Amino acid sequence: VHRLKVRLARRCRNIPLAGPATALLERAGVRATYRLHDALLSNPSSRKLFATEPPRLDPAQAEVVNSLSAEGYALVPFRRLVPDPAVWDRLTADAAAFTEQAVRDLAAEKEALAASGAPDRKKEKKLKKSYLRRRYGREVELTLDDPWLRFGVSPAMLDIVNSYLGLWSKLIYIDQWYTVPTSAESERIASQRWHRDYNDQHLVKVFIYLSDVDEGAGPLEYVPGSARGGRYANEWRWDPLSETYPPADEFDRRIPPSAAKTLVGPAGSVIFCNTSGFHRGGFATERPRVMWVYNYVSKASLASLSERNFRVDPDGFPPDLPPAARYALT
Ligand SMILES: O=C(O)CCC(=O)C(=O)O
């Protein structure tokens, strides 16, 4: 979010004003630009592409789209989406090496910390700072031979995401996360706190649990009805580039804790989620959480295509790649 704000602020910096006035103007400019792209410049064409030939959903996909539309999220076992067990086996075999590496790295770091004789508080602080280990991070070169990339643009996924959004979406993020458990007494930081994602209102994040995720493994939590049109949509209403984290005590006053869903599930649980609604996760206190993450946005998104965390060469696309998949990757 910070990188995005800086980039957008730079883009609007031709206006000769200083201080808060500039900031206000910049924000107004970004909001106007987003609305323009959503209403006129970008999304109408992707809506048209979708409407020309809407995909036919199977019953499991239709259920996911209905749940997303009604509540902003859906939780479904992978095997319901893709009954062929070979697909899951291929994906998890690919994910295993990073998980094993993360476990080894962590053990080595803990050993080094123990040997350093640093006080426990300091050790905990260090672990907390890097509680999220990412396989790819910001930039990775991929090809469609990669089973996760291929799956991310398969009809099994894109037909759901695009049907919910009513447009052809762009895949802008793909990664494997390993969440390191930290003390239950530690403070929640970053995405462990309630927040909306402010880069786009037409977005779907997909989290695929690769380990069993119970309350101690930092499950994703979501406030159903907090995305557009929902009963909590007006609490810290979504607007491009708004404040990321509402104060925790005020949050609990305005949205009762009972309104939130804790999305626990065994390995193989798939969560589709419009994260312009309120969500948090990754506060693992007992066990690590391993999961796969995809982010899909509309063409109007402020996290533009230049922010993609992966690169893929269109010249290497197989000729039979469906047009919606090609669109998602370019
Ligand atoms: O780690 C999680 O469960 C939450 C992730 C999150 O907040 C995000 O991707 O926006």
Structure description:
The two termini are 22 Å apart. It contains 11 helices and 11 strands. Strands 1-8-5-10-4-2 form a 6-stranded antiparallel β-sheet. Helix 4 packs parallel to helix 9 (155-165). The model has no long low-confidence stretch (mean pLDDT 91). It has 330 residues and is an alpha+beta fold.
Shape: globular
Kindly name the structural category.
alpha+beta
Range of helix content: 40-55%
**Mean pLDDT level:** 91
What bound compounds does this protein have? 2-oxoglutaric acid
Order of SSEs, N→C? Answer: HHHHEHHHEEHHEEEHEEEEEH
What is the overall number of helices? 11
Oligomerization category of the chains in this entry: single chain
In total, the number of strands is 11
Radius of gyration: 20 Å
Low-confidence stretches: none
Sheet having the most strands: 6 strands, antiparallel
Strand content: 15-25%
Q: Could you give the order of strands across the largest sheet?
A: 1-8-5-10-4-2
User: Termini separation (Å)?
Assistant: 22 Å
